[in-house]
Write a structure and sequence with these properties.
With 214 residues, the protein is an alpha/beta fold. The chain has two domains: 2-137, 3-Layer(aba) Sandwich (Rossmann fold), CATH 3.40.50.2300; 145-205, Arc Repressor Mutant, subunit A (Orthogonal Bundle), CATH 1.10.10. The chain contains ten helices and six strands. The protein has helices spanning 11-22, 36-46, 61-72, 89-96, 108-119, 127-138, 151-161, 166-173, 177-191, 196-205, and strands spanning 2-7, 27-33, 50-54, 77-82, 100-103, 124-125. Helix 4 (89-96) links the parallel strand 4 (77-82) and strand 5. The longest helix is centred in the last third of the chain and has 15 residues, at 177-191.
């Protein structure tokens, strides 16, 4: 039996995914989470075989949650779930330790296939995402400006763009506020921007965070 934890901040979406998986033979959803923090806390105790991780959630978000989860439970496979199929998000999640990247428009059959494949130690990428990634490399596209950032710079950029305060970021990453600000200004320089607002707008433009609801 493949044990699964489903992490998504939208209750209806989470319920739909759970229902799809519970209908499949050999898969059991043992827990649900509405944030990255909840997913990490549950994984410390339950050690599921697979976690379906929504990329965009309140708090630390799916990217940082994936990194932390793989540190505390390396044997747990992560499937990143996102409505966005463009770079750099797929590559970022795979580099963070995700075994699969599946779009939220995936069919029930694809979702189940992804769970079964990663449970065997294999990788899975939704065909539309794999095609986009391959074409981007073949065409020599410059891609997203965020691709020039280091892993730590990207980590801090996403947290700033998601409205986390410098002190909160420092505490979460176990570094000083001064170090966070050093990374922050380095990011501004690399992206040729002048502040947090421009960083947030750029992140929204490239699909890294959602636009705030009206």
């Amino acid at each position: 039996m493949i044990t699964v934890l489903v992490a998504d901040d939208h209750a209806m979406v989470r319920a739909g995914i759970v229902r799809m998986l519970e209908d499949a033979d050999g898969i059991s959803v043992i827990a649900q989470a509405a944030s990255g923090e909840e997913a990490i806390s549950s994984c410390r105790i339950l050690r599921p075989d697979v976690v379906l991780m929504d990329v965009r959630m309140p708090g630390i978000g799916g990217l940082e949650a994936t990194r932390k989860l793989k540190q505390i439970s390396p044997e747990t496979r992560v499937i990143a779930l996102s409505a966005y199929d463009q770079e750099p998000m797929p590559s970022l999640l795979l580099k963070a330790g995700a075994s699969a990247y599946v779009t939220k428009g995936a069919s029930e059959q694809e979702m189940v296939l992804a769970v079964r494949q990663v449970a065997k130690g294999q990788r899975y990428i939704s065909p539309c995402v794999a095609q986009t990634m391959a074409l981007s490399q073949l065409n020599g596209d410059d891609g997203s400006p965020f691709e020039m950032l280091s892993e730590r710079e990207m980590q801090i950029s996403l947290m700033i763009a998601s409205c986390h305060k410098v002190q909160d970021i420092a505490e979460n990453l176990h570094i000083s506020a001064k170090t966070v600000n050093s990374y922050r200004y380095r990011v501004f320089e690399k992206l040729n921007i002048n502040g947090d607002v421009e960083l947030t707008l750029l992140a929204m433009r490239h699909g890294l965070i959602d636009a705030p609801e009206a």
